[in-house]
Amino acid sequence: MERSDRRLNIALGIGLAGFALVPWYRIESGFYGLGWLGNFPFGTVEAPGIVQIASHGRWTLAIIALLFALGLAARAFKVSPLRANLLVGAGAAGIVFLVLQGLAVGFTGWTWAISENLFGPLADGQPSMGAGAGLVALSFVLMFSFGLAERGVLRGDAFVVASIALLIFLVSIFVFYPVGSMLIGSVQSFDGSFDPSGFIRNIQDPSIWSLDCVVGGNRCGIAWRTLFLAILAASGSTLLGLCFALVATRTRFPFKKGLRLLTILPIITPPFVIGLALILLFGRAGVVTQQLSSLFGLEPGRWLYGLTGIWIAQVLSFTPISFLVLIGVVEGVSPSMEEASQTLRADRWRTFWRISLPLMKPGLANAFLIGFIESMADFGNPLVLGGSHGVLSTEIFFAVVGSQNDPSRAAVLAIILLFFTLSAFLAQRVWLAGKSFATVTGKGDSGAHIALPRSLSIGVHAIVIPWILFTLVIYGMILFGGFVRTWGLDNTLTLEHYQRAFSFSFSNGAIAWTGVAWNSFWTTIKIALISAPLTAAVGLLTAYLIVRQRFVGRNVFEFALMMSFAIPGTVIGISYIMAFNLPPLEMTGTALILIACFVFRNMPVGVRGGVAAMSQLDKSLDEASLTLRATSFRTIRKVILPLLRPAIVAALVYSFVRAITSISAVIFLVSAEYNMATSYIVGLVENGEYGVAVAYSSMLIVVMIVIITCFQLLVGERKLRRENRVATAFVPSAVSQEKAAS
Question: Which of the four, 245, 292, 405, 546, has the lowest number of CB atoms within 10 Å?
Fold first, then answer.
């Protein structure tokens, strides 16, 4: 009872602070700047909720105050069904009404005609919600959660119930609300009224759905061109990834460590840099183009600028990711099954085709899905190499920031893009549903994998070795391109691009960052350092709930959280712009919208990594802690987290790197004050400053290599220590468990 009262006091204290101590509405100059203190607590915007009701006529906030007072009244009761029902009712009603009030009242008054008809016109509207509204919303969620816990939901575990409620609340705000706003925006006019004419006009646009390329014409519609490119890119990257995985696991290739090194490169490379390197090689002024022109007298062509160039760049970018997905699957195929096949006189080719390859289907499906979604969402390479052959991601961008200025067209294109990716996501789940591909069981499974059929071995080597050399040349161009004065015209070696981007000087005993890239560089690092731990925390908490808890709707909960993986970054970007540019939540141009985008865009990777790591931990460890009356929160902090340090580090590093190299969503969300590195590099490319762009990209690659190297060293050391303790794992004891937890 004392513990229930203490946590309820915390929830109510958060709500009281939101109502009485901080501004209810958004502070334009920035909440953390504290400039609002001069007009607090009676300013029109700076006033807290209680003053807004009393002095500024915001009578709609009075209902929220009454619902919060109902929660306060519940505190007077002892823990009982009555108190639990009061908390659940007050919390749920408070959340619903707070959402409705925020959506119904805009800058100038009612945003819904039905509200004005029922209550009459408002004398004044309201700004966007601020810190006060956010704290009260959090208080309502906690009241609702603690009420459910007191009713015995999930064995009365308040931490678990509150975690699930908060995750659902946050995902609803930062995933489903933006996507819903985009869908609604596609059938609205500029004044917000219902107007489906723009949607109908754009959805019927021949430039989207034209099939001229099928019937003999020269151009496909944007939708079919993007779909065709995504299928080709996913197929190419999956096939090459499988070849790399087979070479790394089933052959005597002498440079297997080098293959694994190549898997790091696409993660640490800005997504458009490969396209830029291809231009340096095969563009009209590229090295290869100029050499062929001088040797054979060929006229430099523009074959690279179009779907061919985009496909090459995307396969280069996504093949190592497919390799990462597939290598574990290839290694996981049971050697005993292959040996059994050969015992039944099947040759190596038949064994591979009928036994090994079918068991790799989940990995192949995942690799294809990742390649498909990444190709659909890719923005940088089509922007650099697309020329007149635009794809959905670039057309969405130009519909927003170009001369068209057609938000309805951007929304329609984003809906088409989302339809393609979600269809692939659902098709993969349906295809794999109900099928078993298990090859690792509790029984012993010794033996070695059979060698590849000779013809297949020759084939995969013939594919992999030239591709490795080609990849090395590409990355050599990326590094070398920053050291020449003007690529293709003046190849004199110089450091002026690095000096222009990253120069600094000493003035009055302090460092002055005079390079043009420093501002975006430091902004990127700061936002990445903030978003990475949040992403890891949300992902690992979600993994804990999925693996360790059993509750109604768990599968739906997992699918809803993982669905954000299937939403392309371009769609996330345009939906955030349409959702968070107006009340109730106005965040465009701030660091908060970038952080929210990174957290909920990259969260599914942390979830899957956490699920994989936590599934290897015996459930008896945390059950023992709970038996000794430790709370779930203390169990996670003292038992689970120390055993998940490698997974935590992996989630942190991945989130940090993705925050630095992301472009498809970021390009819509940056501002003059908060400009990210990738967006700044795109601007350099558009201005023809290739040298500075390559220099900046090379610097980012070096920074990422340092971080990834530290990560690999840390994880490698922990894996080695775990192997040294393997003998004690067979005889569990209090001592061995205590050592593992420490």
Answer: 405
Residue that is written with structure tokens 């946590």 in the block = 7
**3-state secondary structure (DSSP) of residue 617:** coil
- To the nearest 10°, report the CA torsion of 722, 724, 726, 731: -110
Q: Is the predicted pLDDT of residue 24 greater than 90, yes or no?
A: yes
CB atoms within 10 A of CB 520: 21
Give CA separation, 567 vs 121, 430, 675, in Å: 39, 18, 23
Find all residues with CB under 8 Å of 173, minimum gap 6, and list them: 585
Structure tokens at 80: 């009982």
pLDDT surpasses 60 at 6: yes
* Main-chain phi, psi angles of 354, to 5 degrees: -100, -20
Phi and psi dihedrals of 463, rounded to 5? -90, -45
Strands 484-486 and 505-507: unpaired
Tokens representing residue 570 in the block: 């371009």
With CA atoms as reference, report the closest residue to 595 among 310, 174, 281.
174
| Residue type at 458 in one-letter notation | I
> Residue with structure tokens 């956490």?
610
How does residue 289 score in pLDDT terms, banded at 50, 70 and 90?
A: confident
**241-255 pLDDT per residue, tens:** 999 888 888 888 888
**129 DSSP β-pair partners:** 25
Q: 524: which strand partners?
A: none
- Contacts of residues 360-363 at CB distance under 8 Å and 24 or more positions apart, as own/partner, are 360/242, 360/326, 360/329, 360/330, 360/333, 361/432, 361/435, 361/437, 362/329, 362/432, 362/437, 363/325, 363/326, 363/328, 363/329, 363/330
Kindly report the backbone phi and psi dihedral angles of residue 484, in degrees, each rounded to the nearest multiple of 5, phi listed first: -110, 150
**Which fold does the domain 511-715 belong to in CATH?**
MetI-like fold (1.10.3720)
Residue 512's DSSP bridge partners are 505
What SS3 state is found at 493? strand
pLDDT in tens, 147-174: 999 999 988 889 999 999 999 999 999 9
Coil/strand/helix, residue 188 = strand
Please tell me the distance from the alpha carbon of residue 199 to that of residue 183, in angstroms, as a whole number: 10
- The dihedrals phi and psi of 497, each to the nearest 5 degrees, come to -65, -40
Instruction: Return d(Cα 168, Cα 95) in angstroms, integer.
Output: 12
Long-range CB contacts for residues 113-121, cutoff 8 Å, separation at least 24: none
| Stronger pLDDT, 5 or 87, i.e. the higher one | 87
Alpha-carbon span 132 to 25, nearest angstrom: 7
Cα(18)–Cα(265) distance, integer angstroms: 46
Please, which residues have CB within 8 angstroms of residue 553's CB and are 6 or more apart in sequence?
Answer: none
Question: 403, 192 in Cβ contact below 8 A?
Answer: no
Domain limits, CATH 1.10.3720.10, in the chain: 213-436+450-491, 511-715
Q: What is the DSSP letter of 450?
A: P
Distance (Å) of CA 159 to CA 81, 165, 351, 636: 19, 10, 51, 11
Which stretches of 333-453 are DSSP H helices? 335-343, 348-351, 357-359, 361-377, 380-385, 392-401, 407-432
- Give bridge partners of residue 510 from the DSSP assignment: 507
Q: Give the model's pLDDT for residue 727.
A: 36
Tell me which fold the domain 213-436+450-491 belongs to.
MetI-like fold (1.10.3720)
Alpha carbon distance, N-terminus to C-terminus of the chain: 32
Question: d(Cα 608, Cα 230) in Å, to the nearest integer?
Answer: 24
Secondary structure in 3-state letters for 452-490 = CCHHHHHHHHHHHHHHHHHHHHHHHHHHHHHHEEECCCE
Residue 481: CB atoms within 10 Å: 25
